[in-house]
Here is the input.
Amino acid sequence: MNRIFLDVHALQTVPPSNLNRDDTGAPKTAVYGGVPRARVSSQAWKRAIRTYFRDEHLLEPSELGVRTKKVVELLAERITGLDPSLTAEEALHLADETVKASGLKTEVPKRKADQAKDGAPAPAPETKYLVFLSARQLDGLARFALDGAADITGFLKDKKNKERVREIADTRHSVDIALFGRMVADAADINVDAAVQVAHAISVHRVDNESDYYTAVDDENTEQETGAGMIGTVDFNSATLYRYAALGVHQLAANLGQGLREDEPRTEPVRRAVEAFVHSFVASLPTGKINTFGHHTHPDAVVVKLRTTRPASFVAAFEDPIPSDHGGHLREACDRLATYIPDIERAYGDGETTLTWVLRVGPHTRRLADLGTESPTLHDLVSAVGLAVTERLEKPA
Here is the structure.
């Protein structure tokens, strides 16, 4: 299959906020171009993208996965859903043996084991780390566990059955596993290479964190009680962020495999996944301290490129921080991209095969209009990208 990359770039301004905290509770920062910048980690935004899939119903629940240490408990629930006659203890035993047969190690957390010493029901074993499994994989493992319910230990000693467990855990990946990958320390052979890379979002200008000193009044205080009921500080900053992600469409297609239904073409799952990713990357938002700051903004400008050469971030356009001494940063950020993108692509790009779409808001973004085909709405942008990806996938290698 031909290599196909989808690059998504966005400029997004956020007001005073604390989207992503460090170990001290302050907004994360990074030094770039010799000055401190606001930063939102890729982990924070990837989680926002994954939850947006579910919350906005961009994908069916059967196309999504779950990342948890409580795999045994989750599998036991599916087993009892298929066979309600099993007791909870029997289902946990079947689930635990099946999970271990897949190569994962499980154990009862010491804290929970101690709590159970007083006669409480035995807690479910957990994996030592978060494991990403698709809904289809969990359903398949539950059905297979029931096949060996009469003697699950003996059933899973059979080499073919053990191989079948690992096969179930390593096929029919969910869209989020296919996109973001899966690392399994105990069973590296069922790892999944991520198809998408997400950069840490950074501000296009210098940022210094600020602190808000606040007090809270006790509603039941009398007039004689004038002191605050609570005092504290919360750190924040505001920024115009450059956001970037690169999606290897060919890797995504390999991870998803053939069409998931017999009546759909091979490209259909990939198209749905690409459209969901572009939509979610653009529209999702980390929710750190959102009740305190209400930082509900959308990107002012989005540039999407479909290319066959390697991915290309445009963050170098902002290595020199945009000065903060004459107002906002968005207009100059757009101007810099409008100059930098043609320059870098003239040197390294492939203008004949690269497709570009632009979604933009307001007069400050006007110079970006000439970079590609303008999409009036996010829906139009997503549909155009999905159609182009399908056409590229259907071309002979």
Notes: The chain has a mean pLDDT of 93. The radius of gyration is 25 Å. The chain has 13 helices and 14 strands. Residues 8 and 255 are 20 Å apart (CA to CA).
